[in-house]
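Subject: design request, 279 residues
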């Protein structure tokens, strides 16, 4: 057999069964993003985040998640958390802000972002994190499942841990617009058409029950919306009187047909641009 042919066979075998992934230098960055094909953890030296003091109207969720994360960083028992509810109300911003706050207290806590599409690879990621001396918050943003989606089964490796148990140094935080991680109409449809309705969706719906913490986020009222914008203005040095801010912010909200933390930030971005202020 020729040498070039042997080299091609060896390369094909390596693609089919790649060498075990080597852990990155976890001391190089506070955050990492998990990618597949090939498996790798990309360091994120500077996390895109909002200061916790600028997150308005979510005090209870903030305090609960911060205390839970502190427990974990100290090596104490802590719960996986599901942050669910209205769009644009600071769910993912809170996770990143809490991570920054705990690190500022002197804990070398890492955060690893995992996309929903990569959930089938989570067992490989957990094996990598388990072997590290660091502690990790594993973060999945905008988590949800459709009626024929099997990715939720992979998530049980984190929430239930299987025979090995969840790694002691890994905590899982997820955000979702859906309390039960799947649309209500799909839940009702499957219950109505199943031979045994009580069991038709139990496996999927009960997935959310495996999170020890449920933190709800609800649409904000007008006062909270304006307070968010005023907080951004004060933090970034945008000078505007209350009457003008109120009139322009309410007009912006009306054109968007929504009121949320995200809409508040979008208005502030436009305002800062018009006032020539860098953010």
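Subject: RE: design request

Done. Sequence follows.
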């Amino acid at each position: 057999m020729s040498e070039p042919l042997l080299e091609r066979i060896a390369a094909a075998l390596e693609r089919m069964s790649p060498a075990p992934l080597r852990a990155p230098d976890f001391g190089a960055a506070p955050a990492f993003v998990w990618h597949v094909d090939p498996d790798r953890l990309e360091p994120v030296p500077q996390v895109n985040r909002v200061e916790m003091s600028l997150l308005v109207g979510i005090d209870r969720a903030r305090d609960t998640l911060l205390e839970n994360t502190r427990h974990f960083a100290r090596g104490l028992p802590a719960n996986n958390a599901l942050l669910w509810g209205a769009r644009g109300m600071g769910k993912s911003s809170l996770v990143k802000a809490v991570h920054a706050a705990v690190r500022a207290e002197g804990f070398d806590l890492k955060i690893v972002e995992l996309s929903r599409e990569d959930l089938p690879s989570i067992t490989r990621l957990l094996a990598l994190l388990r072997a590290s001396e660091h502690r990790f918050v594993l973060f999945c943003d905008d988590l949800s499942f459709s009626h024929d989606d099997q990715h939720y089964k992979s998530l049980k490796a984190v929430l239930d841990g299987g025979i090995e148990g969840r790694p002691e140094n890994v905590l899982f935080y997820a955000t979702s617009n859906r309390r039960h991680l799947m649309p209500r109409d799909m839940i009702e449809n499957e219950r109505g058409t199943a031979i045994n309705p009580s069991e038709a969706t139990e496996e999927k719906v009960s997935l959310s029950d495996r999170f020890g913490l449920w933190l709800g986020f609800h649409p904000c009222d007008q006062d909270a919306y304006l307070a968010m914008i005023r907080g951004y203005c004060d933090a970034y040095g945008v000078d505007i009187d209350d009457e003008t801010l109120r009139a322009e912010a309410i007009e912006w909200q009306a054109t968007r047909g929504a009121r949320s933390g995200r809409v508040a930030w979008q208005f502030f971005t436009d305002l800062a641009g018009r006032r020539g202020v860098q953010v």
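DSSP finds eleven helices and seven strands in the chain.
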